């Protein structure tokens, strides 16, 4: 009931919230079977709309892929087409599953879902030492991206291209966020790769073959070959084909606030030359934040039994596994400190009071002693709602395990999605100091490989040494051996130095 003093202001405050509570009350009073059928209809309509969107996306991407002339555009369009096909298949499978499953009635209490994020994704590559350091041997180049999926939610990462022997690992800056995730979720991570054959002499595209048909073979055979190529393009095999290189499965047990290492299951890719040289492990940060932590699970009015034995009117809000009590709703909206806070977690005991008393007993063990807080609802129905939501909140704290014990930050998804690979930030080899004490131009820091050889983070030692414009190590050694003013002593720490006996 609104008082006359606050009536003129409360009529314009949060109209959307008032509408939400009105619909919520109607839902609580409706037939559960009718609500279940209505919810299923909404879910099916949503899935059908998503399928329709992916169909239009696929048609547009196919036309774009056929018109692409640059390699980076072609690879990005092929990745988008592959992701759209995966989403459409997931939507159709879920739609069929829901139509075959029997109708279920809605339970009185709904378990809390959560937001789950995947970030700091990194996968080491296993090149031979001659491939990476001497820049010879393995000539393969890949285009690689990652798909993460929970249920029908499928998210794709940035396309790294090209991935060759100069890279020691795959690092993705993307943050994938999933909404409304249940506790029994299974996150599937998939690594999709494509071998780029454009730099090999045996490779050729259908367009190049088609342009050379009339000059190399007879007209009759040329027509047949052109027809087969045209059929191949029309059957959906247009553009680069990405293959599943490896996959992994993560669950609630893998959730944590820091980066952890997990196992990769390598797939059998034929031919073996198309297999990305993965090490068999990857690391990422898998974080989860229950929705009952980020927003209110329930709120309402109740009487609190003070230590003096007086009942005091309170407004309570259930969130983040605690019950905050204010003297009034205005104090809560003014962001004032709660008058009392009661813990509601997996160890909390919630039970009704004596029959007909409308009391709610919330019991916690504090320093070995039972601490009981007694609330009284305005009616038997409100008492039932309070007990139901308090009990569900306590169960959610147990069901979400580590995600409920510590609050994990859910990062916002980034908007930086580049087609080309980012420059390498440097490896352990590049950052290893070679000279211990120098008082010339390296007086403030110990020089690294990059400092001595004049390398950039994106270049390799061998490629710089093989360049005709760059001086060799012997030339740099002679130039460094010339007397300089205020020059200090330089002590070599090369492992093969004859003068190094340290």
Automatic annotation (TrEMBL):
Lineage top rank: taxon: Eukaryota
Extent of Polar residues compositional bias: 480-490
UniProt-listed Pfam families: Anillin
Residue ranges with Low complexity bias: 459-470
GO CC annotation terms, alphabetical: actomyosin contractile ring
GO BP terms, alphabetized: actomyosin contractile ring assembly; mitotic cytokinesis; septin ring organization; signal transduction
Segments forming domain REM-1: 42-105
Positions of region (Disordered): 459-502
InterPro entries: AHD, Cytokinesis/Rho-signaling, HR1_rho-bd
Protein name (record): Rhotekin-like isoform X3
Organism whose genome encodes this protein: Thrips palmi (Melon thrips)
